[in-house]
Amino acid sequence: MIKFENVSKKFKDTKVLKDISFDIEKGQLVVLIGLSGCGKTTTLKMINKLIKPTTGRITIDGEDISRKDPIELRRNIGYVIQQTGLFPHMTIRENTEIIAKVEKLDPVKISEKTEELMEMVGLSEEFLDRYPSELSGGQQQRVGVARAFALDPDIILMDEPFSALDPITRTSLQEELVNLQSKVRKTIVFVTHDMSEAIKIADKICIMDKGEIIQYDTPENILKYPSNDFVSEFVGRNRIWESPEYIRAEDIMINEPVTVSPELTIGKALDKMRTMKVNSLLVVDGPKKRMLGLIKPKQIAKMKDRSTLVKDLMLRDFAFAGAQDSIVDLLRVVDDNSISEIPILSEEGNLMGLVTENSLVTTLSQQYFEEGEVI
Ligand SMILES: Nc1ncnc2c1ncn2[C@@H]1O[C@H](COP(=O)(O)OP(=O)(O)OP(=O)(O)O)[C@@H](O)[C@H]1O
Ligand SMILES: [Mg+2]
After folding, report:
1. Does the Cβ of 11 fall within 6 Å of ligand 1?
2. At a CB cut-off of 8 Å and minimum separation 6, what does 64 contact?
3. What is the spatial order of strands in the sheet that 2-11 belongs to?
4. How far is the centre of ligand 2, averaged over its atoms, from the C-alpha of 73 (Å)?
5. Which residues contact 172 (CB under 8 A, 6 or more apart)?
6. Among residues 289, 298, 288, 279, which one has the least CA distance to residue 342?
7. Which residue intervals define the domain CBS in the entry (predicted)?
């Protein structure tokens, strides 16, 4: 784990980092994001001691890095900088192997590792003898990433590695990074200006402004619960629609839908439907509201005997969803089952809420209307 404790940085008289504290868990991908000049690169470079804090302390796995030899520290920290930082007069092989050679590792092992790294970043071996200028920007960037992994470090620092690329190459490298990370589980600190990029790749996002941390949270929480106007503005109101999987049933469901007991008569159930102005009743049992079935006016209408009990008439076979299911899942349930209301159940089958057609439409329409506008 990387831990920043009250870290500040002054360049001459200007304070560019103001007392920041945060933790980066092992195996997580954390994105530092913010406007130009807010201190992202400064924060990143402190982790491998390219910049020293003016005050405060940084520890890695409990060890204060100010006491560590920088060379030794950097052996365990890969670093990818913007525009790749490849040496133009060296081939791709030489660029990739340079650190391992400086470390005097076994040449056979180095060579094997290089081939493995090329495969990892999706470049064929024919590139190894070329020079960086003979590769496209995206290919150079892949080499930059491969090189950062060369000594198999635990930590990788990436400073806007994809910012110079076209959107399509960029998107595919982001996806590859996510895939790669799911296999290697390194601790990665990634700097970007781009919120879409951050949301796509991050376990946690650290939003910075003028040398301070404004919010440090998961992409989902940043999208749903921005801590202040700066974050909302930065995130953009409609950003959540780029990740609709973060809009979940529990965010849009009615928490106290109208229910009936299985022992009630259908006459009483019909009265309840009328007074509560609902199209169906959810039949639940016990204090935990175990969901047993559904009852609809159509079924009741067919039944002459009003003293029939709800439990003898209810539909026991009904579609439902879970609280964590996304709006995309819910729309699928609506579509597959031609229904307009979805009971939301816990894993034990207890009723937690109800998503109605109305709540789906209201949620979906939010992306087309300004805040406060009456629909
Ligand atoms: N060596 C330095 N000497 C003086 N000031 C510096 C130095 N390095 C950075 N700064 C200042 O510190 C502030 C933070 O710089 P930093 O490079 O960390 O920003 P950043 O968030 O990475 O910005 P960008 O998105 O533009 O890369 C800026 O105002 C910058 O001008
Ligand atoms: Mg920077």
Report:
1. yes
2. 57, 58
3. 14-24, 2-11, 55-60, 63-64
4. 22
5. 138
6. 279
7. 253-313, 314-371
Ligand 1 test: best mutation among 17, 38, 158, most atoms within 8 Å of CB?
Answer: 38
| DSSP strand pairing (155-159 vs 55-60) | unpaired
> Which residue from 51, 83, 79, 78 is spatially nearest to 65, judged by alpha carbons?
51
Say if ligand 1 is within 6 A of residue 338 CB.
Answer: no
Does 42 sit in the ligand 1 pocket, CB within 6 Å? yes
Token duo for residue 293:
């079935």
Q: How far is the centre of ligand 2, averaged over its atoms, from the C-alpha of 208 (Å)?
A: 12
Is the CB of 181 inside a 6 Å radius of any atom of ligand 1?
A: no
pLDDT digit string (tens) for the chain, length 375 residues:
999 999 999 999 899 999 999 999 999 999 999 998 999 999 999 999 999 999 999 999 999 999 999 999 998 999 998 776 788 899 999 999 988 888 888 899 999 989 988 988 888 889 999 999 999 888 898 898 889 888 889 999 999 988 877 888 889 889 989 998 998 899 999 999 899 999 999 999 999 999 999 999 999 999 999 999 999 988 887 788 888 888 999 999 999 999 999 999 998 998 898 898 888 899 999 999 999 999 988 888 777 888 899 999 999 999 999 999 999 999 999 999 988 899 999 999 999 999 998 888 888 887 777 655 554
Number of H helices, E strands in the chain: 15, 16
Q: Which domains does the chain have, with CATH numbers?
A: 2-246 (3.40.50.300), 250-363 (3.10.580.10)
State in Å: Cα 71 to ligand 1 middle: 24
CA 12 – ligand 2 centroid, Å: 19
CA–centroid distance, 224 to ligand 2, in Å, is 27
In three state form, how does the secondary structure of 301-348 look? HHCCCCCCEHHHHCECCCCCEECCCEHHHHHHHHHHHCCCEEEEECCC
Q: Which of 251, 312, 318, 248 is nearest to 282 (CA)?
A: 318
